[in-house]
UDP-N-acetylglucosamine 1-carboxyvinyltransferase
Amino acid sequence: MQLTPLHIKGGRALGGEITVQHSKNAALPVIVATLLSREPVTLHGIPRLSDVYIILDLMAHLGTQHKWVGDNSLELHTPEIINTDAPYALVSKMRASFIVMGAILARAGQATVSMPGGCAWGPRPVDQHVKAFRALGVTMTEDGGNFDARREGSLNGHFVFELLTVGGTHNAILAAVLGDGVVVLENASIDTDVVDMVEFLNSLGADITGAGTNIITVRGVSALRGGAYTVIPDRIEAGTFMMLAAATRSRLRIRNVRPDHLRAVTAKLQEMGVSVTEDGSTLLVDATAGELKPVNVTTQSFPGFPTDLQPQMSTLLATVPGTSVVQDPVYPDRLTHVAELHRMGANITVSGYTQVIQGTRLHAAPVKAADLRAGAALFIAALTTEGETVIDGVQYLNRGYERLAERLRGIGASVQQNDLALAMD
Ligand SMILES: CC(=O)N[C@H]1[C@@H](OP(=O)(O)OP(=O)(O)OC[C@H]2O[C@@H](n3ccc(=O)[nH]c3=O)[C@H](O)[C@@H]2O)O[C@H](CO)[C@@H](O)[C@@H]1O
Ligand SMILES: C=C(OP(=O)(O)O)C(=O)O
């Protein structure tokens, strides 16, 4: 859905407190994982985001009935899988939806899922998903832009991922939960979103051990029961607000945080001279005292510095005097924020996946988000500048930040939008 642009006037410090939503990237696989149970499941902490509506559309096609209960709780029930395909029209809207393959395969024995294709910042390969399925006994064929997966019996065996993949680990676990086989995944992702999905599945009766380590063992069970679960807080949204506080030289109290999910981010901000204090599930970020220092940042899989915070960090560093170097080997083409920041006066030179950033004072300009975290980078940049910045491409922000304009206004930001309505279910 096309949304009207955000009009942001910045250049002044923000203050007060902001509450972080629950995690988009944990909620999506947990929602998909409900496909494995015939019983009703209630999920709490589901952010009202366009990505969530897209996955719910896809699941409705597969046979899931859903009902929102209050603002952020969702009842889901999949008594039967009524279709075993995930068509291009639905998968292409959100590449992460490829993990429905594992869940459909587990429940129905066969799945046909459209190839996810590339995205605004480069290729999003699924070769590791496919290799894992094959190694575990699934017959995989490719035809007409679709992957077809079939299993005769239960999944069984070992697979060593060639690289750390969050979605690949989700997919392989989902495929192995039901049945009587034993699957061992080595070099598995230790990401918080993998751990959250496993804790959810185990709460329904799955038998998965080792989540949060590089070796995950899935022992098949005959069926899952229903239940209720609350998704973890969104560490990427929390990190975005931490960088917003630093970039606007503000003092912000950020609530509903798992500080242990943000250690790499906290350490980098502290290295820059930002004060970050933990108090239970609250972080106090204070960038009001003294000049900030430039730093070098390289993205890594969890627990390293997340690629999903790279554009926001690059923007913060674009405001810090001196030279910083930011490298994103996880997604080497994730650079759509750079040309837009240039329009705002940023001094960033790009070579491969390396940005060399000379800090300066940014100025307002009309800009356009081409993807979600580039959009986050732009609202941070806008809030550092005097004058009015108009940000187009707001539909990308609605993929990941719930009621953004309203919540930014709550910490003193001047953010206007004529039509903030999200697509409703
Ligand atoms: C909805 C969701 O949770 N998305 C997140 C998830 O995406 P996603 O799960 O798609 O990302 P992966 O962890 O799979 O990707 C990590 C790296 O592995 C590569 N790769 C991945 C799979 C594969 O089969 N082959 C391959 O080469 C990717 O190109 C990338 O370089 O983790 C990414 C990395 O933390 C985040 O940026 C995304 O926000
Ligand atoms: C890139 C992201 O999501 P996706 O993997 O769905 O594109 C993100 O959350 O920053």
